[in-house]
């Protein structure tokens, strides 16, 4: 009871600031731990303290094998390869659509009045005079 009211209020404000900083640190730790679990792929890893020595060990790594393993098992690279294959297929489809489709129809029958047979053959194709599908081809190429 030997302090002023102002000093008491300042101490309470500092205590509240420390409590907020502690809560923020706890939230940051939890977020960093979740990010570590997502990065490593171990989803049930419990937070623990670090044990051991942080000095690097002299391990001989096979960098070519590690690089090849990374290229073959990376989900980001596999997704990118899939997008590239899809884009190539779309480009090929757009280029093929510029070529008109030829349709044919054939029919046979008889004329009952004259008793003669009939054969009908129809061949059709759209004539793309101005449509080369160049817009869709350019979009697919891009």
Features:
142 residues; mainly alpha; 2 strands
Structure characterization notes:
It is a single chain. The protein is mainly alpha-helical. The chain has a domain at 7-45. Helices cover 55% and strands 11% of the residues. It is built from four helices and two strands, in the order αααββα. It has helices spanning 5-40, 63-73, 75-97, 134-141; strands at 103-110, 117-124. It has a two-stranded antiparallel ribbon. β1 (103-110) and β2 form a beta hairpin. α3 (75-97) runs antiparallel to α4 (134-141). The longest helix is centred in the N-terminal third of the chain and has 36 residues, at 5-40. The radius of gyration is 37 Å and the shape is elongated. The protein starts with a helix and ends with a helix. The mean pLDDT is 86.
The strand order across the widest sheet is: 1-2
Beta-strand percentage range: 5-15%
Number of helices: 4
Q: Measured on Cα atoms, how large is the radius of gyration?
A: 37 Å
From the helix content, strand content and strand pairing, which structural class follows?
A: mainly alpha
DSSP, total strands: 2
What global shape is seen?
Answer: elongated
**Overall pLDDT confidence:** 86
Oligomer: single chain
The helical percent reads 40-55%
User: Which residues sit in consecutive blocks of at least 5 with pLDDT less than 50?
Assistant: none
What string, H for helix and E for strand, traces the elements in order? Answer: HHHEEH
Terminal-residue CA separation:
77 Å
Largest sheet report: 2 strands, antiparallel
